[in-house]
Amino acid sequence: MATNYTDDIGPVAYPLKMVSQEVVEHMLGWNIPEEHQDLVHEYWRNFPAVSKYWHFGLACIYSILMLTSLSGNGMVIWIFSTSKSLRSASNMFVINLAVFDLMMMLEMPMLISNSFYQRPLGYQLGCDIYAVLGSLSGYGGAMANAIIAFDRYKTISSPLDGRLNRVQASLLILFSWLWALPFTFLPAFKIWGRYMPEGFLTTCSFDYLTEDQDTKIFTICVFIWSYLIPLMFICFFYSKLFSAVRLHERMLKEQAKKMNVKSLAANKEDAGKSVEIRIAKVAFTIFFLFVCAWTPYAFVSITGAFGDRSLLTPVTTMVPAVCAKIVSCIDPWVYAINHPKYRAELQKRVPWMGVREANSDTVSTSSGATAQTQNPTAEA
């Protein structure tokens, strides 16, 4: 952070203040003991130490995010796992995503402590623990989003024989955890890659700055494994879902013409809430959140390994961490808040939240006309 030291007495102000010990200019990593200096990459030593107020501000932000994540994700897990009406295979995926997001929340107390000490507590061990929690929750959460996209496509496109059972759902959940393991523990055990502090030196991620072929190959593999493949799955399944919904809507219109009626669906006075529009909005929100959470990380890592490193500063490299944490606080709500049964449970168990949902009997009566012709989406 640039500071003007010549306001008072011209160009000699800075050296005079240095002699009088009124100003001490530190570089990043200055407060890490000599025996742990290899923890700090040489690139970060070129930047002045970040002001303590940046650290304290970040600690306040993370404190708020921690409470938000704990309450939001905790409530999703509590209600979905204890309500009989919500115990379906599809909802197991929502619980799984909330567990991944809660795991990411476990990083936040460590970062808050690191911010007040302005260095990674525990040095290499603390850095490894922080990075393992973030990698496991991040990689697993990315695949959990892709699995939810697959489940929604199967459920809505083939409502009779496409629904997953509990055994299939459990296997897919296990797969999401296994997917996250390789690139989480390879750098943790120094088998391939390593974890290092980044940015303010209070967060840790895999090393993408060392200029050797091994690090560059590791970075591109992590990019493909944790970002590109889940993103391709999400885009593929939701594009197939949109196609299935458009085909279903077209079939309904053609059948209505044959029967000489305006529409086969009930409650058409609310025309703006067609199946296609509702699913499109939810799917776009899911896609948007995934991009917002992990595109900054992908950009920083690829830029550090292959691009213009002058774009990477301590402040800009902290943006991905904040984005991922913010999304982890609201991720499950995107799925859960669109679920009428979940809203009904919220209204019953936590009425102070002000959630209002129509009576289940009324909903079932009003939707009876469409139960035979319209794909059920309540559990999707």
Automatic annotation (TrEMBL):
<dbReference type="InterPro" id="IPR027430">
    <property type="entry name" value="Retinal_BS"/>
</dbReference>
<keyword id="KW-0681">Retinal protein</keyword>
<keyword id="KW-0157">Chromophore</keyword>
<keyword id="KW-1133">Transmembrane helix</keyword>
<dbReference type="GO" id="GO:0004930">
    <property type="term" value="F:G protein-coupled receptor activity"/>
</dbReference>
<feature type="domain" description="G-protein coupled receptors family 1 profile">
    <location>
        <begin position="72"/>
        <end position="335"/>
    </location>
</feature>
<feature type="transmembrane region" description="Helical">
    <location>
        <begin position="217"/>
        <end position="238"/>
    </location>
</feature>
<keyword id="KW-0675">Receptor</keyword>
<keyword id="KW-0297">G-protein coupled receptor</keyword>
<feature type="transmembrane region" description="Helical">
    <location>
        <begin position="93"/>
        <end position="117"/>
    </location>
</feature>
<feature type="region of interest" description="Disordered">
    <location>
        <begin position="359"/>
        <end position="380"/>
    </location>
</feature>
<keyword id="KW-0472">Membrane</keyword>
<keyword id="KW-1015">Disulfide bond</keyword>
<dbReference type="GO" id="GO:0007602">
    <property type="term" value="P:phototransduction"/>
</dbReference>
<keyword id="KW-0844">Vision</keyword>
<comment type="function">
    <text>Visual pigments are the light-absorbing molecules that mediate vision. They consist of an apoprotein, opsin, covalently linked to cis-retinal. May play a role in photoperiodic photoreception.</text>
</comment>
<keyword id="KW-0716">Sensory transduction</keyword>
<dbReference type="InterPro" id="IPR000276">
    <property type="entry name" value="GPCR_Rhodpsn"/>
</dbReference>
<dbReference type="InterPro" id="IPR017452">
    <property type="entry name" value="GPCR_Rhodpsn_7TM"/>
</dbReference>
<feature type="transmembrane region" description="Helical">
    <location>
        <begin position="53"/>
        <end position="81"/>
    </location>
</feature>
<keyword id="KW-0807">Transducer</keyword>
<keyword id="KW-0812">Transmembrane</keyword>
<feature type="transmembrane region" description="Helical">
    <location>
        <begin position="129"/>
        <end position="150"/>
    </location>
</feature>
<dbReference type="GO" id="GO:0007601">
    <property type="term" value="P:visual perception"/>
</dbReference>
<comment type="similarity">
    <text>Belongs to the G-protein coupled receptor 1 family.</text>
</comment>
<feature type="transmembrane region" description="Helical">
    <location>
        <begin position="282"/>
        <end position="306"/>
    </location>
</feature>
<protein>
    <recommendedName>
        <fullName>G-protein coupled receptors family 1 profile domain-containing protein</fullName>
    </recommendedName>
</protein>
<dbReference type="Pfam" id="PF00001">
    <property type="entry name" value="7tm_1"/>
</dbReference>
<keyword id="KW-0600">Photoreceptor protein</keyword>
<dbReference type="InterPro" id="IPR050125">
    <property type="entry name" value="GPCR_opsins"/>
</dbReference>
<feature type="transmembrane region" description="Helical">
    <location>
        <begin position="171"/>
        <end position="192"/>
    </location>
</feature>
<feature type="transmembrane region" description="Helical">
    <location>
        <begin position="318"/>
        <end position="338"/>
    </location>
</feature>
<dbReference type="GO" id="GO:0009881">
    <property type="term" value="F:photoreceptor activity"/>
</dbReference>
<dbReference type="GO" id="GO:0016020">
    <property type="term" value="C:membrane"/>
</dbReference>
<keyword id="KW-0325">Glycoprotein</keyword>
<dbReference type="InterPro" id="IPR001760">
    <property type="entry name" value="Opsin"/>
</dbReference>
<feature type="compositionally biased region" description="Polar residues">
    <location>
        <begin position="360"/>
        <end position="380"/>
    </location>
</feature>
